Amino acid sequence: MTISLPDMDLFVDLGIERFVGAQKGNRKIAIEIKSFGRTDRINKFYEALGQVLVYRLALMKEKIEREVWLAIPQKARQSLFETIIVQEALSHFQLNLLIFDQLNKKIVQWERF
């Protein structure tokens, strides 16, 4: 998905619709998909956090109603994303996480902070 701003275009990895229930209808979301290797993981988190916040702002400015979700591997959720500072950042910035099983290519959990 591309968000066109007056002075640049931003690309969000994937736009999809997720069914959330009959009373709420379909919820539109945008997903930033990241993998976190063994090295430099905290810097990759900083980058992902910045991207998600900028995408959220750009969508809001353009009046595009779409929630932004950060998709991360289950292993990253169980390690890096359990550290105190990352937990506090997730809560402070009210991030949405989509946790996926990289091996089986399945969504494991949706988390809101």
Helix and strand topology:
Blueprint: E1 2-4, E2 9-11, E3 14-19, E4 26-33, H1 41-61, E5 67-73, H2 74-78, H3 84-92, E6 96-101, E7 106-112
Parallel strand pairs: 4-5, 5-6
Antiparallel strand pairs: 1-2, 3-4, 6-7
Describe this entry's structure for a reader.
The chain is of the alpha/beta class and 113 residues long. The protein has one domain: Trna Endonuclease, Chain: A, domain 1 (3-Layer(aba) Sandwich), CATH 3.40.1350.10. 31% of the residues lie in helices and 35% in strands. It is built from three helices and seven strands; from the N terminus they run ββββαβααββ. The strands form two sheets. A five-stranded mixed sheet has the order 3-4-5-6-7. It has a two-stranded antiparallel ribbon with strand order 1-2. Helix 1 links the parallel strand 4 and strand 5. It is globular.
